[in-house]
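the three lines:
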Amino acid sequence: MSDKVNLTIDGRKLEAPAGSTILQAAKDANIYIPHLCHNDELKPYGACRLCVVEITHRNRTRIVASCIYEVAEGLEVQTVTERVLNVRKLVIELLLSRNKKSQVLQDIAQKLEVEKSRFELDIKGCILCGMCIRTCKEVVGVNAIGYKSRGFTREVATPFDETPPDCIACGSCAYVCPVDFIQYSEKNGVRTIWNTEFPMQKCTKCGRHIAPVKQLDHFKETLNLPEDHFDICLHCR
Amino acid sequence: MKKLTTPQDFFDYQSEVKKSVDPKKTQIIICAGSGCLAYGTQKLIDGFKAEIEQQNLQDVMDVRASGCHGFCERGPIVLISPGNIFYQKVGLKDAPEIIEKTVLNGETIERLLYKDPQTGEKIIREHDVGFYKKQQRFILGQNSQINPTSINDYLAIGGYGALAKVLSETKPQEVIDEIIEANLRGRGGGGFPAGWKWDSTRKAVGDPKYVICNADEGDPGAYMDRSILEGNPHTVLEGMLIGAYAIGSSEGYIYVRNEYPLAVTNITLAIEQARELGLIGKNIMGTDFSFDIQINRGGGAFVCGESSALFASIEGRAGEPRAKYVHATDRGLYDKPTCLNNVETWANVPLVISKGAKWYQSIGTENSKGTKIFALVGKINNTGLVEVPMGITLREIIFEIGGGIPKGRKFKAVQTGGPSGGCIPEEYLDSPVDFDELTKLGSMMGSGGMIVMDERTCMVDIARYFLQFLEDESCGKCTPCREGVHQMRVILDRICEGNGQEGDIETLEWMGQAIADGSLCALGGSAPAPVLSTIRYFRDEYEAHIKDKKCPAGVCKALITYKIDSETCNGCHLCFKPCPTDAIAGEKKKLHTLDQDKCIQCGACYEVCKFDAVIVE
Amino acid sequence: MENTIKAIVEKYDSNKGFLVPVLQDVQKELNYLPREALDLVSKFLKVSISQVFEVATFYKAFSLEPRGKYQMALCQGTACHVRGVPLIVDHIERTLEIKDGETTEDLMYTFETVNCLGACALGPVMVVNEEYHGKMTIAKTDKLLKKLGKEGNA
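prediction for all of em together
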């Protein structure tokens, strides 16, 4: 089996590594496909459906999510068709109704010529892309947050909506959130996230706050570092 | 019990069991399916047993509590064999008389017989009853022949013979070829050829390989899988065993709805019994083939009928589907090759193997072979489970087997395919029922729910009902399904409330197409179908709601008024008490009046009035 | 409680795949899923508490709140729907002053609508503590509530 496959995207003949996704191949060829729940560091998920494209393979045409669909020899991909645009327009309208203020969403809407959402919702702003949860699990490896409930009532939540016992306050969830929904602040040696205050460790030399104690403990444990490893900050080392 | 160590050992044991059955001994067969149990059948079973014991008649007759006989409308049902005498709506007090007259003296009891509604004739034998006449009950028919808690009963009707046959003389690939030749298609919904699925799983790379029985029957108005699991669990196990042998699998799961407690009990017991005999476990019948089955109970999530969500649930996670661009046959449960079929599909397997693909092919239409079990429910006289050959028309099922619509009302539509399906109007009643025809009509075969609707069923309300169901059952992962179905439901709500707007129908159509195209799994992909199919066939009803603010069927509360007909009301006072808002006034034996300002359209008066004097407009 | 939950988890060989059945058994034992129980399941099954919480709130069968003495499950199947279930839902909600899925303050009744129970011939069907009541009407519902009320207060 060869490592590369030949496909076309919007009529352009391309070569892409076998096993990569259409979205990846398009990115490499500088072809724009909007997306919200994809991040190269995370496993493909396919939830927001903004990245749909129309494919023809073995005489069959259908709509697929480009962030999860793997390239194949002879695959023909259309990134802009009426069906594709209808899905994207609906998706962005639906997401805008969850979060009217997000610049990221507004920019995508503008590109799709959607002026405003016809749907009204009383929702705080999370678009349920799941990047925070997946980052916490796949990248950080602590599983501190997850979903609560299902369907339209689904939310991103800490267990029992209370202080998450496994959270190390690393802030990765807030960092990856595309719509800046997760509240995060740092003040007087305390990092606040998920409505919980996490004390930070002070550098024993300069007195600067390095990181939350729980986060450093997590590193020490997973990387098998000595107990005093983080007593001194990077600058003083 | 001894373990059977060779296929020959099995055949010897089976003929021993067969010989021990006395064909002359009378069997009082009592339907103990969940439907009949809900009528209080357990008391009837106990009553018969006590009576027999009291009269010391154990040598003359047996009581057999069997699985579902299908004719739920007429339960509790008792069959007397030999003779196939069919008694319906049997009560506890009838037991001594049945024993005395029918079993001991060969007389039939008039009042317990089924009366043909057309001819008025009393029918004695089960197979002459209109409900059963046109059916071909290869699968369901076994239910009344066995006690589901007895493996010997199953062995006595030839059970596990198909397994012994393949283990002794058929190569795995030949089993698959037989299933492919029979063109057995999956009964769970999509109708994918089971043989191909088996073949792909067999050829896939990975170890272990899993065989799974999907018993997460969730379609509202469908309960055939439950009746098979409850009434004949061993046939499902035998099907899975044959499949596992063909595929090369050693581990299996049955994923069953927790709302089906009797099914869970019976299948658990069946596995234990089969294990004791050496029909499940290591080195089955002394061969190299080993296979074990675990039961996993679902937690109440319709989406878990979707294969990848089902796998997630078995792995102990929330039932969230993933994209199916990689087939389960390659990467399914725990990312290993997995073959998933539903209960009815597995139950067809022993039949195909024992009777042969040629025989199986002789039933049905060109591309849909064998029989299909439907749950015939809703506005229908003969509610129940029916097993019919593929290709039978909807009209035959509804009007001949089902006995038509109650109260002389007019048929409006039949809904098939559950929440993924659609509503089929009268003009297509003569269409043959098979996988492809139903799809052409904008519906689908689905798992087998067949819900009949009459002129008093509002099609907009039905569309809203299904969307509400799907909104509650959506896992919430992908945007179109989670948000889109909700917003479509909001639009339908406002139409039903009389606030529909010009353009709503077109918006629903546009959203429906985009949701169907854009959703991640089949739940979202087919969620708009009930809306799109009702718009396709009953657009005028939508328009009546939106433009005229009327619900022609008299269902949508905001668009109807209850009135008391001055001609027919005789002042019986029956409607007074149930009215929660004291909206009805008038003296006894005088015409009542209904205060529209107080009326909340709860329908309580309409329900109790015996003279049809409460009318809906 | 610790021993109860340990025993349930061990019944499933501490296999993480059986999280859903484990929670079912715990709920059966305790009537609902108290937080303490979920923490113990997480500990014994070695599954993160966020995942246990996610699963416990995903599946409809689970309740994180105490449930009533009488658990009334009204079937929402299509057959029951076309035979008038919505009117009965309204009536129960009005009479008990609770919404679908809620429990009365005195912990007497939990009312919930459930997916098709597969007893369509008897529709509308209501199951109260595993006992089936078929062909329900508003009038029959009232009678049933009266009877349960008497029994419950006795």
